[in-house]
Amino acid sequence: MRSRTWQIALLAALFGMLFLAPVGTTVSQELQQVFVTNFPSVFNVDGQVALKGPIKTAALASIQDVIVSPVNPKDTLRLIQAGTITTEGFGSMVLSLTGQIKGEIVRTGTVGAILIPDEEPVTRAFDERGVMQFPLEVMAPGVSAASPYFASNQPRYMIGFSRYRVLLYNTTDKTVTVSIFAYLAS
Predict the structure, then answer these.
(1) Rounded CA gap, 13 and 18, in Å?
(2) Which among 47, 66, 112, 116 has the fewest CB atoms less than 10 Å away?
(3) pLDDT of 20 above 70
(4) CB burial of residue 109 (10 Å; 0-12, 13-18, 19+)
(5) Cα(85)–Cα(170) distance, rounded to whole angstroms?
(6) 37: number of Cβ within 10 Å
(7) Percent share of the chain, pLDDT over 90
(8) Tens digits of per-residue pLDDT, 85-99?
(9) What is the pTM of this model?
(10) Cβ within 8 Å of residue 100, ≥6 positions away
(11) pLDDT per residue as tens digits for the range 126-158
């Protein structure tokens, strides 16, 4: 019984020391040198800031039902110009190409799209010399008489420009109808 009393007394003394100990201690009463670094303002916002609706993190752009006659991708003067895709505000895109054969194909081939930036120096090099700078390509290889429909793989690209010109080619021996889809993501 005595040892139990000792244990209780010892525990009470420990708890008393913990609860009665000073909360903070002073290290020194002397003046100390302190350095303060002010960083420059990163964003200067003036006036009212408001967002209406949800912020778009993805969008789908498409060019549909373009008729593409047989043309080799190296024959840059004859490539079918299908329009432009605006990519401003997005960081990457996944390209998809789908289409349908018009007629009976004898020679198997590839149907594809080449996207080049719609910027003056790049389009000048293409228009004057047929040089494709910074091209992005999507293609459906093996287009044949086995099926009237075809589709491409879906490559993903980092976007480097705000608009791209879309050029189409078809190495089969028959005309095809092509649709291009660009899934744009932040």
Answers:
(1) 9
(2) 47
(3) no
(4) buried
(5) 20
(6) 4
(7) 61
(8) 999 999 999 999 999
(9) 0.70
(10) 148, 149, 150, 176, 177
(11) 999 999 999 999 999 989 888 899 999 999 999
| Residue 152 tokens, joined | 């491409």
What are the sequence ranges of the domains in the chain?
Answer: 58-185
Q: Is pLDDT at 1 greater than 70 in this prediction? A: no
Position with higher pLDDT, 53 vs 62: 62
Structural tokens at position 25:
């201690």
Residues 64, 128: Cα–Cα separation, whole Å: 28
Task: Compute the 3-state secondary structure of the chain and give helix, strand, coil in percent, each to the nearest 5.
Answer: 15, 40, 45
Query: Contact 96/180 with Cβ under 8 angstroms?
Result: yes
Nearest by Cα to 151 from 100, 87, 79: 100
Pairing relationship of beta strands 163-170 and 80-86 according to DSSP bridges: antiparallel
CATH 2.60.120.380 fits 58-185, yes or no: yes
